[in-house]
Structures are given as structure tokens and as C-alpha cells.
User: Fold this.
Amino acid sequence: MNAKTLSAENRTKTILSVVLSIICVIYVLPVLAVVINSFKLNTYVKTNTFDLPTGEMWAGTSNFVKGMTFGNYPFLKSVWYSVVITIASTALILLFTSMAAWYIARVNSKFCKAVYFLCVFSMVVPFQMVMFTLSKTADKLHLNTPWTIPIVYLGFGAGLAIFMFVGFVKSIPLEIEEAASIDGCGPIRTYFSVVFPMLRPTMISVGILEIMWVWNDYLLPVLVLDINKYRTLPIHIQYLKGSYGTVDLGATMALILLSIIPVIVFYLSCQKYIIKGVAAGAVKG
Assistant:
């Protein structure tokens, strides 16, 4: 490799680094704006949006207190519903989609192929196409509570999860399961004793993606749940309105910051598993 080739590669890497850095800054700016304005008095949020909250603009923790005590719906109750829905939905998705993916990958039939392609196709169907029908169906089937809405999330999260799990299961040698069968393991025991532990990389990556989606989701809960009884954290933030529809932007930014901190910390601590899980699931897609 001559000097000209090395020089061209270095220039390409430099340009790529600059472009990606600019894109990173663009993505970080909204988060930075939320952090800055969460400590700023409401009157300065619109007029001095990107100024640091110093001097008379500084609100301290008053925005956080105001946001958590605003209205007659308890803030901690909204947090509780968000936690319950997120954990239950993710658990259902991981359990049922991994079992379905194992069956699809091991049973080579037209029915399994059709189910697989339907699951993949569901990933490209916009939610807006089915949201009104879904809301009516959820009401009829009594899936409009925090304890039953995870079933709805299972349906919407199955597409991506099955796609990733099928790819990973195909990379597992079939001889391992055949050895378990010879030792007397039935299908259920083979799955939980042999297959399930081997799915850990993809389990973690799918779980992280589903947690981030369900925790931040606003549209599905607001369509399905009775928001007078059950409010998740995004819905609670939406209702930070005073008289005549006025919104306290400082308190809103404070609650948005509180809602995104757990997800950001969780994602940063587990992002390496996402890469491993996606790479593992792409071995034999």
C-alpha cells in the first residue's frame, strides 16, 4: 500500500469523523436544551432558550417540585404505571417471541415461513394505520388497563423481536438440541434448559430496545388507557397545563429530564449488549 492510498484513506476517515461528529451534536442539542431549561424560570424558557440558567434565570429545583406536585394526579402513581407496563410488556415479549422464534427456526414448514414473513412485514406497517381499530378492539377485549395493555405491546413488539431471535437461533448448532433430546429432554425442557441460556445476548439487546420503546411511548397508552384513571409518565407530562391551556415549560422540561435519565443511564450501561445481540442475530438471518 503506497503513500497516496494511505493519505486518501486518512482523508476519508477525517471527513467521516467530522460528519459523524456534526450529526452527534445535532442529536445531542435537544437533550442539552432540556437539561438547560429544566433549571430555568418559565419566563426565560422561550426568550433565552439556549442561554445557561444563571443569575435571575436560575430556578433551582422549583421546576421539579412544581412538576411533581402539579394537578390532582400523583406523579409517583404515573411512574408506577410506567414501570409496571414497561417490565410486564418486556417480559412478555422476551418469553413468547423467543419461544415462537425457536419454533419457526426449527420447524421448516410453509406455515412457519408465512408467520415469520408476517412478523417481519408488521415492522413496516405504520401504527397510524391501525390505531383507531386497535383502540376499539382493546376496549371490547378489556385490554385498557395497565395490567392488560402489555398484551397489546406484545403484538406490536413481536415483529422486531422474532426477526432478531430467528437469526440467532439459526446460528445455534442443531446437534446441541438433538443431544438434549437423546438425553430425554422434551421440547419445553430443551428450550428452557438448553436454548434459553444460549439466547442471552439477543435477549439483552431485544430487552433494551423494548424497554426504551415502551417507557417512552405516548400514543398507545393515550389511545387505549382511561387517562382519567391511568396515566403513564409521558401522559402525565402532557397534562402539565394551567388555566386557558397555558403550559409551564420549566416544569415540563424538568419532568422530561426525570423521565429520560433512567433510559439514558440504562442504555449507556447496556449499549455494548445491543451491538453483540444484533451482530449475533445477523449471522444467519
